[in-house]
């Protein structure tokens, strides 16, 4: 499992910068959270970081991002 967590960390590393908007990632397998991480800033101007409970306004973006991410971790 640690190997999959490292793969996910690498996949989302581009958001782990202080000058970029962030992301919150949660992977659920068989009804259990197996990966939960927050990356960088929810609000760059106010210096507010993303947390696992940060609310995002994503509309249909979720469908676009979740499929490639799940495929990347599937192997």
From TrEMBL:
Keywords: Hydrolase. This is Class A beta-lactamase-related serine hydrolase. InterPro entries: Beta-lactam-related, Beta-lactam/transpept-like. One of its GO terms (molecular function) is hydrolase activity. The lineage of its organism: Bacteria, Pseudomonadati, Pseudomonadota, Gammaproteobacteria, Lysobacterales. Residues 15-61 form the Beta-lactamase-related domain.
